[in-house]
Fold this sequence. Notes:
The chain is α/β, with parallel strands linked by helices. The chain is 44% helix and 16% strand. The protein is built from 14 helices and 12 strands. It has helices spanning 18-22, 29-35, 37-45, 65-70, 80-97, 106-109, 133-144, 159-163, 182-202, 207-228, 231-241, 256-270, 307-325, 359-377; strands at residues 49-50, 55-56, 73-78, 101-105, 121-127, 148-153, 166-169, 246-251, 273-278, 295-300, 329-335, 347-351. The strands form 3 sheets. It has a 5-stranded parallel sheet with strand order 4-3-5-6-7, with helices on both faces. Strands 9-8-10-11-12 form a 5-stranded parallel sheet, with helices on both faces. The protein has a two-stranded antiparallel sheet with strand order 1-2. Helix 13 links the parallel strand 10 and strand 11. The chain is globular and about 55 Å long. Mean pLDDT is 90; it is low at 1-9 and 12-17.
Amino acid sequence: MICSKAHEPKVQHITWDPIMAEKGGFKHFMLKEIYEQPRAVRYTTLGRVSLDSGKVFLEEMEITEAELRQVKKINIAACGTSWHAALAGKFMIERLARIPVEVDYASEWRYRDPIVEAGEDLTLLITQSGETADTIAAQREAKAKGCKTLAICNVVGAMIAREAAGTIYTHAGPEIGVASTKAFTAQLTALFVFSLYLAQVRGTLTADEARKLMNELMLMPGKLESLLAQDALVEDLAKQYSKVQDFLFLGRGIHYPIALEGALKLKEISYIHAEGYPAGEMKHGPNALIDENLPVVVVCTHDKNDPDSVLRYEKTISNVKEVKARSGIVIAVATEGDEEIKESVDHVIYVPAAPELLSPILEVVPMQLLAYHIAVRRGCDVDQPRNLAKSVTVE
């Protein structure tokens, strides 16, 4: 049969973009990496936590258990987002392993002649790339003073990992977006695993307590997936506040570092001025900023089974009411099932219930999404913000 030209099938030419292919159908690498967080947390936990035995296994460690039992203080040095993870890690280590922790910016620690006791102190470096100049210098400062160093790093064979006595790798996979997302949640996961390991070695948790926390950790990827399903709700919220010039982020306890991280994400990709602050410090200055044009994001989650967590929550709600009394706009990140908070705030983003020390992994996700959607609406280059680099290899 001979077909006429009129009946010939039309050929459609599809332009193949290798960059878009790498993004896996997402508009930006940052959004893709936000959605990869359940996997990053799962892979960072995989093979390290045994529910059967109730034990943590860290084979990468070259420091003996006997040496860890002798540690009297841990110094953590990091930069940027990794410093926020370090602040959260301080709460984890101190509460579970009962070891005092000092957290410093690597760029500050290396220049202040830090007090390090050889044989008694341990220095922990946290870095996504493992090549950050200030963090490498902090590591060498600690080693020069006779202190053993550990690293939490996302890149196998990086400089800091090579020079450390042991490395806990975060198996987040390559992170292309300059603004860190999945590397941060993987760092929080690694810090929690390390805290459990220290508690196990030093005997500060019972086997049942450890197993319960491990079980909660194993549930985190599923909770993250359910949280990401709320993306459209956060996008709608971003539409309302994409034109504001300032944001304030508040939190108490382990939630304060997440407020800092929320502020950093917003400022680095949307170029909106944002500040993170401890909720209890509002009376010492920031209250002067509050008016009807200032959105205030408040981390109001709590673990109803933890009396200390409930107390912090009640204190935070008191701060929320102070903001509302001054006509401020309040966006709360709260625990699922908390219906009462709706009476005190303008908007609520719910996250699944979790133990206090694991809640930061969930809380940061809506803040990442809020920053992302606001930046997109403002026409900013989300993956490569101006004046910033992925790895800061020079001072």
